[in-house]
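FW: tagging you since you asked about this chain on Friday. Here's the raw sequence from the shared folder, copied in full. Didn't touch anything.
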Amino acid sequence: MVCSGSGRRRWPHRRTVTAAGRREHQVADVWVRRGRRQSALLALMLVSLSGCGMLPKPYRPPGGLYGSTGGRTFYVSPQGDDSATGTSPDAAWRTLRQADQVSFRPGDRLLLQGGKTFKGSLRLDKGEAGRPKQPVIVGSYGRGRAVVVPVKGPAIEVVDTAGVEVRDLIVRGKSAAARKQGGIGFYSDLTTPGRLSHIVVSDVDVSGFRHGVQVGARRWGFRDVRVAHSVLHGNTDAGLITYRLAPLTPGSGEGYAHADVVVDAVEAHDNAGNPASDSRNTGSGIVLGSVDGGGIRNSSTHDNGGRSSAAAKEGPEGMWAHDSRKLVIEHNVSYRNHSNSEADGDGFGLDLGTSASVLQYNLSYDNDGAGYLLYSSDTARPSHGNVVRFNVSSRDARRLEPYGGFYIGGYVRDAKFLHNTVVAARNGSLHTPAVMITPGPRSVSLFNNQFVTDGAPLVVAVGPLPGIEFRGNHYYAPGAERAVEWQGSFYSSPVEWWAATGQETIDAKVVGVDADPCFTATVPVTSFAAAGGLAPGCAAGRVPAVDLRARFGVDPGPVDVVGRPLGRQPAAGAVQPQTEAKASDAG
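HL: got it, structure written out here
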C-alpha cells in the first residue's frame, strides 16, 4: 500500500561549526560555535578507494624511545634537590618549578621519576626545541609513569615551537582552573604560511581538564602530529581536539591549520560535557578540526557526553571531524555516546566542511544519535567526496529517532555509502530507521549495503532528493507498517517503493533484495569478532551484489570489515560469507 502525507517530523537542530575562541594564559580556550562562516572554498580532492594505505606510516622516534638525540638529560625526583645539577638520577632536581626555568635545546630530555607525583606545570616557548629530528622529550624514568598535577592551568604547555614529544605520563587536573584548560596543549600563533613540525603524545593518561590533549592554532599550526596509545577520560569538552581559531578569509589563500595528523590506539571515554554550555557542543571523544591529511585508527570513543547541555543546539559526537580533508577514520569502535539535547550523540561524523575523507572498517553501537553522520550546514563549506564503506551500525539512535543508523543531511555532495551493514532496533516508542536523509544532499550513492530493522522503517527520506541512488542493497524489516517513507509517501515494503520510484533498478532490472539475511549475531554487536555473525546465512542474502567496478567504476576495496577477502563476486553488506556465492552477478 502507498500512502501520501506530509510526513511532518521534528528534525534535529544541526550544527554550524567553526573553531572560535579566546586565549587565556597563551593557551587556546577553544570551542566549536554556531554562526560563524568560513567562505573560502576548500580545495577538494577525490579519495582513491584502492586498499587502506592512505595513512602515514607509524611513527618511529629517532634513536629509539629514549635513545640519544644529542642533547642533555635532566631528572626530577621528590628526593632530589633544586640546587643540584639535575643531570643524573643521583643529582636530580626536586620540583617541576626548577625544570621550568631551563631553556631546553633540541635533543634534550626531561625525565620525571616513575610512580611519583609532581605538582606544577612545564612550558616550552619559541626558541626552545624546534628540530623534528632532535625532539625535546618529556617523560618518565624508573618504574611506572610519573604523575603531573598542575596547580592551575595546563600541565604541559608548548607554544610557538615543535619538535617535542610527551611520553609515559599520567596527567591529572584537580582544580577549577584545570577545567578551563587542556591537560597537554600545543598552540601556534603563526600568521604567515607554514607549519611547525613534529609533535608526539604517546602513552599518556589525561583526565580532569577541559580537553585532555589539544592542538591548536590561530591561523597556521603543526604538521607531523601523532597522538598514540593513550587514554583520555573524565575531561569536560573533549578527550582530544585539534582546531583553528581564526575564520578563513576569502581570497587569502589560507588553508587548514594542521597537516598529517594521526591518532592511533587512543581511548577517549567519559568526557562528560558541560551542562551549562548551551551555545556549543561539549562532551565529545575525539575531534579533528582544520586538518589536511591523516586520520584516526585502532581507537575507541565511548560513554562521552553524559552531562552535555539539554539546551544546546548542537551536541557532542564520539569521533568526528569538521573543516578537514583527506582523512581516513578506520578500525575504530564508538559506542554509548550521549547527547542530552535534541542533536547528535553520534558514533562517527564527517561534519561541516569535511571532504575527500573515508570512514571504513568501523563499528558503532548503542549511541544516542546516528551511528554514522554526514552533514554540512554551509554552502561555502560542503561535505564533498566522502566515502563510508564496510562499517557496522548496530542498534544506534537509541534516544534520538530522527537520526537512524545513517544520517545524511545538509550540503552533502558526491558521497558514497558502500558495503555497510546497519541493524536498527526499536527502543520503546522510538522507531529508529536504518537510514535517515533530511533535505539538502545531492549525488549520494548507497550501493551494496544491508539495512535490517525489527519493524522500524528502513529508509526515511524527505525533501528534494536530486541524485540520491539506492542500488544493490539488501533490506529486511519484518512487521514494519511503513517500511519506507520517501518524500511524503509511505510504502509498506521495499518492493512497492522500488516500483514507484525506480530505485534499486539498473537497465530495468531490479537489483535490490528484500529477504531475511539470517544473521547469527546478537544485537547489539559489540566487537569485530561478533560482527562475523552479520554475514548472510541464507541463500537470498548471499546473492552477489552489484559489480561496482564494472557498473560504476568504483573500487570497493580488498577486504570486508572482519578482514575477509571480497572475492570475485562480493555479497552486499560489511561482512562477507566465508564461501563465495554461486549465483549470477546481480549487476
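FW: The first helix runs from residue 96 to 99.
HL: agreed, and The CA atoms of residues 302 and 335 lie 5 Å apart.
FW: great, closing this out.
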